[in-house]
């Protein structure tokens, strides 16, 4: 019974994450959404095998621990990449010509935008 | 543990320790360390090839803990073929990388270590006999690949790297979800679990979808064209040769080894996805305005082609697909290395600048033509052998639809290859004046040409590779 609740919660969090990942334009929000999905995934990994076996199974917990380490380092790396992209192009989106209002800005600012030279 | 199994450790340990040593060295010494490491681990492939030819596969179990609890490594013929592509493409990319990532340039710093981390990840992914170990390896590969693309430091490359990272994390998330469900069902993480009657379909589809993102299979390919075409030349060559292929090999392994008897409808469906990828990639390649974009979309088309193995699923088709993997990897790396030189000299890879290139850069034009021959699959190239074996497999099983598609793939590849060659050699506006930058050293051109030649030569002597691949995979019709 309790595990069913956990599975439903994991599904709901996962759905929230999918929505955030698809809808938001800002990379920061996309990363937050991905992290939400990862949390839901870890919750599911812990809960589902336990319902099969009846007693706690150490293997999924070890997997989740590894997964958390990977998720943290990936997020840190993605944030560093985002900062670099922001410094170069003046906004944090993977679409170079995005409408700044979609990123939560009030007025378009092109002060930081450098000329996008095609150097290759 | 057999002596050959000990060598498996070297495949992962040599590049990893090279990466760590390179970080500690001063910038001017780094590339020397990487040259040593990058040449050292391919030497291990010679005894390993003999061992695989003798005993079909080399298995290593860590610390005596047997699966399901322990972690195992296994090198089979398919992994060996991709390891050879990896080694040859890496060695051929060395001169180009040496020039591009000179220690006097600011972005050179991280490149050399990142390259070796990428090599570690790819080798580990090819050795992994454990679903979770595979996840860790693919994640390592992705992070290193994203960082390598970002060494270019232009807006386009950074945005492409970010897009790749977001999609790849999403893909690995789906993959791990599938792995979790497999563990819940079977209580084991081993990739090959004999005795399971049917794998949970949800888990199977989740794992395959995640790997499809990583292997850039249409319609989940959106990261690939921008990532490959905006990455620095040598990076694009290495990535095109192995990064997608490591994920594709994992895809095949999960299909044939983990899910021993997958549903036939799913095989046909994935075959149709492959067909769509094949057609879409070829048409998109034909329409691209930049040379590196053409080569990148060609990869999408060929990955779709390789997916046709699933509905055919015979031992002969497996030999053909494995051989095509080898030929395509070599040819693609050669094309990206040639394109890298073209970018250096012309300052751009826009195909408007190609006319007349055959006079100024004959080696590069010849490399593109020769690699193109393999992509089209003209005899006697390696691409022909692979396609021919898939064709005869389709003929024998009566898969007429797949047979037409395989022929179509050759024709459509010919369209985009000849478009490039015709523009280069026969365009009426062969411009007399190019704005030329100094030529890169000749060895970079020769390295690319050697790879393209190798892709053709393996077509003349296919038997050692075909014999290696002859064992097939579980779940295949003999």
Account of the 3D structure:
The complex is a heterodimer of chains A (120) and B (478). Helix content of chain A is 68%, strand content 0%. Chain A has 120 residues and is mainly α. Chain A has one domain: Helix Hairpins, CATH 1.10.287.3510. Chain B has a two-stranded antiparallel sheet with strand order 1-2. Chain B is globular. In chain B, helix 4 runs parallel beside helix 9. Chain A binds chain B through residues 21, 27, 30-31, 34, 37-38, 41, 44-45, 48-49, 51-53, 59-60, 63, 66-67, 70, 73-74, 77-78, 81-82, 84-85, 88-89, 94-96, 114, 116-120, and chain B through 69, 132, 136, 139, 143, 146-147, 150, 153-156, 158-159, 161-163, 165-166, 169-170, 173, 176-177, 179-181, 183-185, 187, 189, 230, 292, 343, 347-349.
Please give the largest β-sheet of chain B. Answer: 2 strands, antiparallel
CATH class of chain A: Mainly Alpha
CATH level-3 fold name of chain A: Helix Hairpins
- How many angstroms separate the termini of chain A? 59 Å
pLDDT below 50 for ≥5 consecutive residues: which ranges of chain B?
A: none
pLDDT averaged over residues of chain B: 86
Beta-strand percentage range of chain A:
under 5%
Cα-atom Rg of chain A, whole angstroms?
A: 19 Å
Molecular shape of chain B: globular
Task: Please report which band the strand proportion of chain B falls in: under 5%, 5-15%, 15-25%, 25-35%, 35-45% or over 45%.
Answer: under 5%
Category from helices, strands and their pairing of chain A: mainly alpha
Major sheet of chain A: size, sense and barrel closure?
none
Overall helicity of chain A: 55-70%
Structural class of chain B: mainly alpha
Number of helices of chain B: 19
Number of helices of chain A: 3
* Counted beta strands of chain A: 0
- This entry's quaternary arrangement is heterodimer
